[in-house]
Every structure is written in structure tokens, then in C-alpha cells.
Amino acid sequence: MALSLDGMVEWHQHRSLVRDAEASLRGEITRNAQGMDQALADLQKTRESLARDVGILKTVIATGKLPADSKMEIASGIRVLENVSWKTAQSTGALSYMTYEQARKYASIYATQDLLIDSEQQAARDAIISVAPFLNTQDGDADPSPEQADAIKQKIEVLQGQLLLVGSLMQSLDSEYKAFLAAHR
Fold first, then answer.
1. CA-based nearest residue to 123, from 42, 56, 177, 34
2. What totals of helices (H) and strands (E) does the chain contain, helices first?
3. Which sequence spans correspond to the domains of the chain?
4. What radius of gyration, in Å, describes the C-alpha atoms of the chain?
5. Which of these, 125, 126, 131, 124, lies nearest to 152 by C-alpha position?
6. What is the pLDDT of residues 65-106, one digit of tens each?
């Protein structure tokens, strides 16, 4: 009788832990999903800006001079995505009391989120490498040579490639968020 009662108490505690974890995870996923449309729009603007930068550099490569009134805007951003609830669910063992399908859905979302974060960090590094040649320039300095412009262009093209990956991961994560939230209304 005492073992049965202990088992019931333990089962209730596990169910309570799962309910708390799921509520926290849903809230975290909802917050992370809220800015995704804007993040995708911002990424597209960044990609368009980089395309203009490459155009400017192609002019320098061809002519040896910067176009009049040209302005380059090499940039990349890192979006902050919450994962404290996910880490807490892992460390408290709440995932082990969920069904396999529940745990798999959360794991998939957070795995994609981790890939996106890693890719954004690499894109930020690529952006830093792309702007490095401009860090110590001042008004009145000579325009970059065609060779320097080509080297910078190649670095920006690497950044553009990385941002293609970031965009793909953002779209995947956005789809995962939307599917999850639609199923958990």
C-alpha cells in the first residue's frame, strides 16, 4: 500500500514537472518566433546591401576608382534566441518523462535554433573579416587598388554565401515554430 502511494506521488510529481516544462518551452518558443518575420526581412535588406557593395567593388576592379558618392555597408547581425527553458528541461530530467514524440519535437526545434545561432556567429565573423581592410582608413586616403578591391569582394562573397545558409536556417526554424505553435494553441 505504501509503495503504491509512493508511486502515485512520484507519478504526480513527474507529470507536474512535464506540465511546467512544456508551459515554459511553449512560452520560450512563442517569444523566439515573434521576431522571425522581421529577422527574415532584415536579412534580405542585408543581402541587398552586400550586393550593392559587390557592385561598387566591381567598379573599382574595372576602373581603379570608387564610384562618386559610393557608400559601402558591410553588415551582419546576430539574433538572440532564448534557450533557458530547453536547458532547464534537460537538466531537470523533464524530457525523460515526456512522450518520445514530444521530446523529439522540442529537440528538433532547438537543434535548428542552435544551427542558426552558429551560422549567424560565423556570418558575423565573415562580416568582421570583410570590413577589416577599412578599419584604419580615413577621408582622403587613396581608393583601394583593383587587387585590394578584388580581395575585399571575395570576402564579401563568402559572407553572402554564409547568409544564404542563415536565411535557409531561419526559414526552416520559422516553419518549425509555426507548425509547433499551430499544434499547441
1. 42
2. 5, 0
3. 2-183
4. 24
5. 131
6. 988 888 888 877 788 899 999 999 999 999 999 999 999 999
